[in-house]
Task: structure prediction
Amino acid sequence: MEYVSAVPVPQSRADSASPARAGGRRTLAAALLLAAAGAAVVLLASGQTWAEGHAAVGGGSVPLRATGQNVTGVPAALAIVGLAALVAVFAVRRAGRLLVSGLLALSGAGAALAAFLGADDSAALDEKAARTSGDAAETISGLTHTAWPYVTFAGGLLLLIAGLLALRFGAAWPAMGGRYERDGSPRARKPRAVKDPERPEELWKALDRGEDPTGV
Result:
């Protein structure tokens, strides 16, 4: 009678690390895509017309409009900060990576909040109306708002989500210029062996690579 062993066969280190590496690549790609798209949307939408109206001048009226930059420059500024934070995620590790990931998330949240608060703003057009008419008490009339503030809001949310992904999964992402083992730990670079230490050209090649040809 044959017996079948019930002892489980252990998985290799490479097999167990593969799902983690694949998950890290997916979250990294998602964060990069969301952050880039979010920043682009915020910067584009901030330059569009957010509000329109008319100012009374003499016996007629003059059409006026206000872009997102006229209403508030916060979303565009925070979008740039968010992009810088995303790049910094790959340049730092551990606590530093956690810090810049939080900055990325806060940049997205701040951009979204500023856009939402500026969606029904009239102060920018009131100032334009006062300057156009020459009357400090003049306010805008026939005020209408566009959907661009809400597009900016959506872009800020994309940045926020990218920051949350970085906070949750950033520890598994590679660092800029780092060499990693399959389990994510740093791996020391092994110097190449000099083929023929008696030949000057081999010694010069080793020196160019920053290695010690003597092996000491």
Remarks:
- DSSP finds seven helices and three strands in the chain.
